[in-house]
Amino acid sequence: MLQQTTSDTVIKVYVRLGAGENTAERDISFRIPEQVDALELLDEGFAIDGRNALITISQELDRVGIPGYMGAFDVRETTLAKALAQTQRQLAEFFKERGLTVQFV
User: Fold this and answer.
1) Could you read off the pLDDT of 48-58 as tens digits, one per residue?
2) Most CB within 10 Å of its CB: which of 8, 53, 85, 92?
3) H/E stretch holding 27
4) Looking at the DSSP assignment, which residues form a beta bridge with residue 15?
5) Cβ 95 vs Cβ 73: under 8 Å
Protein backbone atom coordinates (compact mmCIF):
# COMPACT_ATOMS: atom_id res chain seq x y z
CA MET A 1 0.00 0.00 0.00
CA LEU A 2 2.99 2.34 0.32
CA GLN A 3 4.28 4.04 -2.76
CA GLN A 4 7.74 5.62 -2.90
CA THR A 5 8.30 8.79 -4.88
CA THR A 6 11.44 10.82 -5.26
CA SER A 7 10.26 13.57 -2.91
CA ASP A 8 8.18 11.85 -0.24
CA THR A 9 6.15 8.82 0.74
CA VAL A 10 2.53 8.60 -0.36
CA ILE A 11 0.12 6.74 1.92
CA LYS A 12 -2.92 5.28 0.20
CA VAL A 13 -5.96 5.70 2.44
CA TYR A 14 -9.00 3.62 1.55
CA VAL A 15 -12.53 4.82 2.29
CA ARG A 16 -15.28 2.21 1.92
CA LEU A 17 -18.87 1.57 2.96
CA GLY A 18 -19.24 0.08 6.42
CA ALA A 19 -19.62 -3.64 7.12
CA GLY A 20 -22.30 -5.32 5.03
CA GLU A 21 -22.38 -2.35 2.63
CA ASN A 22 -23.82 -0.17 5.40
CA THR A 23 -24.42 3.24 3.78
CA ALA A 24 -24.63 4.93 7.22
CA GLU A 25 -20.99 4.07 8.01
CA ARG A 26 -17.59 4.51 6.40
CA ASP A 27 -14.43 2.51 7.06
CA ILE A 28 -11.09 4.27 6.70
CA SER A 29 -8.05 2.01 6.43
CA PHE A 30 -4.41 2.18 5.44
CA ARG A 31 -1.12 0.38 5.86
CA ILE A 32 0.81 1.91 8.74
CA PRO A 33 3.95 3.58 7.40
CA GLU A 34 7.24 2.73 9.08
CA GLN A 35 7.61 6.38 10.15
CA VAL A 36 4.47 6.15 12.33
CA ASP A 37 4.23 4.46 15.71
CA ALA A 38 1.09 2.31 15.86
CA LEU A 39 0.54 3.45 19.45
CA GLU A 40 0.03 7.01 18.19
CA LEU A 41 -2.77 5.74 15.97
CA LEU A 42 -4.35 3.83 18.85
CA ASP A 43 -4.34 7.07 20.84
CA GLU A 44 -6.21 8.77 18.00
CA GLY A 45 -8.94 6.11 17.89
CA PHE A 46 -7.73 3.70 15.20
CA ALA A 47 -7.78 -0.07 15.60
CA ILE A 48 -4.56 -1.87 14.66
CA ASP A 49 -4.52 -5.14 12.73
CA GLY A 50 -0.94 -6.16 12.06
CA ARG A 51 0.52 -3.32 9.93
CA ASN A 52 -2.92 -1.93 9.04
CA ALA A 53 -5.00 0.73 10.79
CA LEU A 54 -8.80 1.01 10.62
CA ILE A 55 -11.55 3.19 11.99
CA THR A 56 -15.27 3.12 11.32
CA ILE A 57 -17.15 6.39 11.24
CA SER A 58 -20.62 5.67 12.56
CA GLN A 59 -23.48 7.28 14.39
CA GLU A 60 -23.38 7.04 18.16
CA LEU A 61 -25.14 8.69 21.07
CA ASP A 62 -23.22 11.03 23.33
CA ARG A 63 -23.48 10.99 27.13
CA VAL A 64 -26.81 12.80 27.11
CA GLY A 65 -28.32 10.77 24.25
CA ILE A 66 -27.77 13.17 21.35
CA PRO A 67 -26.83 11.34 18.12
CA GLY A 68 -23.72 12.30 16.21
CA TYR A 69 -21.15 10.78 13.88
CA MET A 70 -17.85 9.85 15.49
CA GLY A 71 -14.46 9.56 13.82
CA ALA A 72 -10.78 9.46 14.70
CA PHE A 73 -9.02 12.39 16.38
CA ASP A 74 -12.09 12.94 18.62
CA VAL A 75 -14.14 14.07 15.61
CA ARG A 76 -17.84 14.46 16.36
CA GLU A 77 -20.15 15.91 13.72
CA THR A 78 -23.88 16.08 12.92
CA THR A 79 -23.63 14.30 9.56
CA LEU A 80 -21.64 11.41 8.12
CA ALA A 81 -20.19 13.63 5.38
CA LYS A 82 -18.94 16.21 7.89
CA ALA A 83 -17.40 13.54 10.14
CA LEU A 84 -15.74 11.85 7.18
CA ALA A 85 -14.33 15.12 5.83
CA GLN A 86 -13.05 16.24 9.23
CA THR A 87 -11.44 12.85 9.92
CA GLN A 88 -9.78 12.93 6.49
CA ARG A 89 -8.45 16.45 7.09
CA GLN A 90 -7.07 15.46 10.49
CA LEU A 91 -5.48 12.30 9.08
CA ALA A 92 -3.86 14.24 6.21
CA GLU A 93 -2.45 16.74 8.74
CA PHE A 94 -1.25 13.89 11.02
CA PHE A 95 0.72 12.37 8.13
CA LYS A 96 1.94 15.75 6.82
CA GLU A 97 3.50 16.48 10.23
CA ARG A 98 5.52 13.29 9.74
CA GLY A 99 6.66 14.14 6.19
CA LEU A 100 4.08 11.89 4.50
CA THR A 101 1.47 12.61 1.83
CA VAL A 102 -2.01 11.11 1.74
CA GLN A 103 -3.78 9.81 -1.35
CA PHE A 104 -7.45 8.94 -0.76
CA VAL A 105 -8.52 6.03 -2.96
Assistant:
1) 999 999 999 99
2) 53
3) strand 22-31
4) 28
5) no
